[in-house]
Amino acid sequence: MKKMLAMILTGTMVFSLTACGSNPAGSTQTSGESGTKKDTTAAEKPAADDKAEESAPSGPVTLNVTTTFAGEDTNAANYQDAIAAWQDETGNKINDASGSSTETFKARVISDFEMGSEPDVLFYFNGVDSNPFVEAGKVVSIDEIRQTYPDYATNMKDGMLGASPADGKNYSVPVNGYWEGLFVNKAVCEAAGVEIPGPDTTWDQFMEICQKVKDAGYTPIAASFAEIPHYWFEFCIYNYLTPATHNVVPGSVDDEHGKAWVDGIADMKVLYENGFLPENTLSATDGETFQLFVDGKAAFLIDGSWKVGGIEGATDDIENFTVTYVPGKNNRKTTDIIGGLSSGWYITRKAWDDPEKQKTCVEFISYMTSDEMVSTFASVSATALKNGTQVDESQLSTLAVDGLNFVKGATGMSSAVQDQVTQEQRVPVFNGMPDIVTGKKDIADAVQELLDLVAAGQQ
Questions:
Q1: pLDDT digits over 138-169, tens only?
Q2: Superfamily, domain 179-339+398-458
């Protein structure tokens, strides 16, 4: 049951995915044969397959793999099951160096590429976070891979593969998408005598709810402004924009988007000043504040759809938790959400140029992105699959079903604007959040420093 529950909704249902065949790399399939290879004679193989045969490994291969399927990620267990099965089937081995998707993890990945110690296969973000190694030519484009393996990722819609902002080419094969919402501990809200926020709850009303929760002796919002301030950063800025305008990095601190960033961060400062955050929010880890929420000491938590599995695994009373919309204000409707397809599987140039590893990398990613495997990881989530996915709601937890209804009721969606900014460029705002909310750093100055780093990176 837990395994099935951990599959759910790491993305949005706002995409319509139509049917078409699934063809893992190097295989030919007929309808209904997803994940099963059909024998072909050497004479029937295209020239590209002949070239691929030349690089076939002579024995078992060990791949160094890094992913974000770790910690409380919904698919951490699914990933471990998948690589165990692949190793048993092929005799190959995976050296796994996966980690939770924190700013520290992102910095480690970039550092590995800079030091020449990058993995063979990487599951990572396909936005600006990938720019450093894309621009350095350290990952291989899907077009180049298809010159040798023409069936690579052909079960996916090319238009949804997630083109790199660095050059517009596709480098990664996505698995599932995501959404972000407001998770709620029902027992805390009941003890504080407040209604759970709904699709019509405004930001001002939410502030009143938070005050009542605080007055009742609970922490209103579980959040680490020391380690992960970015969910509140995203939605507080979103409150001054719309789904059509949110995903744009400001040109200056004085333009429409720059002012939205300053005003949104100012609202984060108000949350801190009002005492709506944990007392140790400026030093606590994300894990510590999550535990505060699960243990019934905090009412609300903004996080991504992957957190559903984390909550399922952390409690025996899953019915005590639900997910709802982050209250909005101005032109942003409360039901306008953050979501999209933001990550995928990469093959590094180092592995591609290794005759012993190239074909194995292709086969491993083809296995991890088959229709069957993506359905396991994504369930009802947004995917790039031509066939789409199916789900049996009777097998889902109440929190998972609430997540489905949350997505169905969304009126608009924007991808996260922070994905347009590199980890290094975020430092003045994200790392500087403790100084910002305590008044030691001027908000406009911090935003301007971030924008200066963005501008420098474009030169």
A1: 999 999 999 999 999 999 988 778 778 788 89
A2: Periplasmic binding protein-like II (3.40.190.10)
